[in-house]
């Protein structure tokens, strides 16, 4: 009834362990991030979220690196501290260099600025954009 | 005293025309988007914003296509209608396919979801993320 | 049971009319904005909101003009179309010039940009700021 | 000239103590939360905010539990750390079980996701919704 | 390559039709909302989103009505026009009265206000909240 | 490749030092804030951001105090902890009194509330606002 707590593998129910095992296998890591350990408080939420993330972040028309950059862009825009920390780490693991990080920040900063200029000036949508 | 209006080239002051010309040259377009025509109400803001955008969106460690995808990700997260319309168009021009757009939306959606799960569960930052 | 509708003075219950009258008297206007006509669907919400707004927006340590500029800054940051339209109009009525509007937009844009840079770089709070 | 500080009952002016007393009486608690102690720096803001919160959160067409769940949903969407902590606690006190918390997080996460999908795909409003 | 378009049942691929059919069956409706018709541009996104929404919005520890109220609360906080329209309609269908809607708006408004007061005053988290 | 770190003057490249020197000269301070030390990881981003901020925050149609109040309003709305701390300090330095801070918070809180009421009630824009 207090602050949510992380659930470690040793204390986890079988259906939670199954998800943890799949995360570790898929990502080739020894332990899952805290994010998953907290979601484990609700096994159905954990399972659904992991299966969606696994499907969405897989190699596709966009590479895993680009997808991680997008994840950081959203997390920074929302100001989610945990997400910025964890997805910056994932992006670096997926190949993000320091130069890329700097440009990522520059684009995210600029987009947040011009989004407000467009709203503030009440810019009418160009006919070409439909 | 009313709603801001677009300033067309024909009615623009010389320093505004100079920016419009540079946008058209840089982007190889016949006319600038409405966004710039509205910013033209404040020539200093127009000039500074364009010069920043030009520098930020240029080819660098990240390609123009990736930068446009990031711009869309931010604009969608902020719910900026004009920006979604204009940067989706720019992204398509820069090479975004329909398959890429679908995956972009999927990542942006998922990131907005997990950002809230991380905040709501008050997930502690993993030691590995510093 | 469908889309909320504006309630006009002629159709309003006495306690709604009383609020409308106070708005018109306080603001020296002939009719209230649509915002109040929609809130009139819930007379308690209408009354409480108006009384709070009236108290908050009154001349104080900050002038009504500064308060309207702040209102626009928040509305633009939130991307609230109605609020941008109505509070830009109020700000102009309170004395906002075109030059002020341009600088307001510039500050709001820049603040939205640097807010994300600070979050994205995970900037530690300076000791001086406590 | 520094960071705002909490004002304790012992150091509070009479009109602040009056509000603190009403909060303690209404909520049947021995002390008020930090939120109120900080607002006490501006007695008018404290009084108006408490009176609005008291009126809004009272039993009505919606129960206090549902209202606290809604408060958590908004706080999580905004990423407000203090508000998530304090309103999760209030919700638990009002009867929120762990199962409810898990479902609350699931709905909030999903709504944040589909909000962006609707914006990103620029979905036209169905005629039925007006 | 232009603005995304709705995909009608008659033009839909078999795997899209299968999802549309399941939505119609589950919700007992004659046609799906525009939201699903736009997502149909990416069949994998459509299927995953529907299956998640179906699972999340089902009767559980929280009733479908409470879940729809939460959905509206998030959508209003994010300012998502389409989502406000469609989930207000769903909430009404699930039993939301006009009195409930007014209180919902009041709570959402108040939560958005106090979220900012807590952030602006940099309120320290009470020891009791962990 | 880990968490971004502050770059101190002693360790900074010449083009970074040049920006630091200009900040110190312009603001008449002995050292720059952490914000600039982190941006120094990307010298081009540092230079562009500083030059824009310097131009935007200068005395103009709006005073530096009003501009700092606007900066705080945006930062509070976005819930950016670092930005609230640093710009509250700047605003105080520029002349913000405690009474002004209280009214600033009141306006920001109220604007965030009424923004949601306007969106939730789907208020139609008054003809007078265009």
Taking the sheet with the most strands of chain A, its summary is: none
The average pLDDT value of chain A, as a whole number, equals: 97
Most extensive interface, residues per chain? A-B, 64 and 64 residues
The proportion of residues in beta strands of chain A is under 5%
What level of helicity do the residues of chain A show?
55-70%
How far is the first residue's CA from the last residue's CA of chain A? 51 Å
* Multimeric organization: homohexamer
What's the β-strand tally of chain A? Answer: 0
From the spread of the alpha carbons, the general shape of chain A counts as elongated
* Integer-rounded radius of gyration of chain A: 18 Å
Structural class of chain A: mainly alpha
> Strand-and-helix sequence of chain A, N→C?
HHHHHH
Q: Point out poorly predicted stretches of chain A.
A: none
Total number of helical segments of chain A?
6
What labels would you give this structure?
mainly alpha, 130 residues, 6 helices, homohexamer, elongated, 66% helix, 0% strand
Write a structural description.
The structure is a homohexamer of 130-residue chains. The first copy, chain A, is an all-alpha fold. Chain A contains six helices and no strands. In chain A, helix 4 packs antiparallel against helix 5. The radius of gyration of chain A is 18 Å and the shape is elongated. The model of chain A has no long low-confidence stretch (mean pLDDT 97). Chains in contact: A-B, A-C, A-D, A-E, A-F, B-C, B-D, B-E, B-F, C-D, C-E, C-F, D-E, D-F, E-F. Chains A and B meet through helix 2, helix 3, helix 4, helix 5 and helix 6 of A and helix 2, helix 3, helix 4, helix 5 and helix 6 of B.
């Amino acid at each position: 009834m207090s602050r949510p707590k992380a659930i470690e593998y040793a204390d986890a129910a079988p259906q939670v362990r199954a998800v943890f095992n799949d995360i570790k296998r898929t990502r080739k890591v020894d332990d899952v991030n805290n994010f998953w350990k907290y979601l484990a408080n609700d096994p159905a939420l954990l399972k659904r979220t992991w299966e969606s993330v696994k499907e969405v972040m897989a190699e596709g028309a966009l590479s895993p690196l680009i997808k991680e950059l997008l994840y950081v862009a959203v997390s920074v825009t929302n100001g989610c501290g945990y997400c910025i920390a964890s997805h910056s780490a994932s992006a670096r693991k997926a190949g993000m260099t320091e130069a890329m990080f700097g440009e990522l920040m520059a684009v995210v900063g600029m987009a947040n600025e011009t989004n407000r200029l467009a709203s503030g000036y009440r810019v009418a949508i160009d006919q070409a954009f439909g």
